[in-house]
């Protein structure tokens, strides 16, 4: 550090060249020439580094009142941050955002960028919870499978006990359709699959469909133990027919809930069973 430090008896060569370059034409060699206040750091093997002690400030651009307001709005938009959430709550928010993107744009439109935009966060926030898009879709499928199975357990009980078959079937149809209406996003990807559905989602849907049909078949066997029902009824086809009709009812409810309410299907089931049963 030359300025403010101890003077050297002989200036280094690089400093002599710097002084010579700053010398005005026609001036005497011994005359001091005013120059900016430089802080110079040098070493034998280092290149010359010279920085002005006082750097000029960045110019401020003047603008009109209208453009100032627009710039302020843009700056406020850029400074908008997502509120802090606990990790579990943030994870559920990102899964909800991924589900909404799928429903709006299909599976071809889902990406980490689209999920982050839908959730109002940045991509690093998404990567903090899911390392890639595949893990996010896997978590989405697991959650929707768990929710749908919990609702189906209430609709199709394992132990019907001494309930009336008509009340059990008619009430089960109504409860199933009410479950579909309570979570339309969950059941839409199950009952109304979109084009380009990933294999992992199709696998979850088919697995749950087989479980549901097995539970329905168990109820059919229980109902056939009653003397008023024919004991030679095909259990597998009956369970399959009930499942297909239930899925079709759920699909029509999702597409036109005002025209196909749960009460309308419940009344239909009661009327049909009244014609079949003595």
What characteristics describe this protein?
278 residues, mainly alpha, Arc Repressor Mutant, subunit A, Tetracycline Repressor, domain 2, 3 domains, two-stranded antiparallel ribbon, 11 helices, 3% strand
Q: What's this model, at a glance?
A:
The protein has three domains: 13-52, no CATH class; 87-131, Arc Repressor Mutant, subunit A; 144-276, Tetracycline Repressor, domain 2, CATH 1.10.357.10. Helix content is 61%, strand content 3%.
Notes on the protein architecture:
The protein is mainly α. It has 3 domains: 13-52, no CATH class; 87-131, Homeodomain-like (Arc Repressor Mutant, subunit A), CATH 1.10.10.60; 144-276, Orthogonal Bundle (Tetracycline Repressor, domain 2). 61% of the residues lie in helices and 3% in strands. It is built from 11 helices and 2 strands; from the N terminus they run αββαααααααααα. It has helices spanning 13-22, 65-78, 87-105, 112-119, 123-129, 133-155, 165-182, 184-191, 199-224, 235-255, 262-276; strands at residues 38-41, 49-52. The protein has a two-stranded antiparallel sheet. A hairpin with a 7-residue loop joins strand 1 (38-41) and strand 2 (49-52). Helix 4 packs across helix 5, helix 8 (184-191) crosses helix 10 (235-255) and helix 9 packs across helix 10. Mean pLDDT is 78; it is low at 37-53 and 55-65.
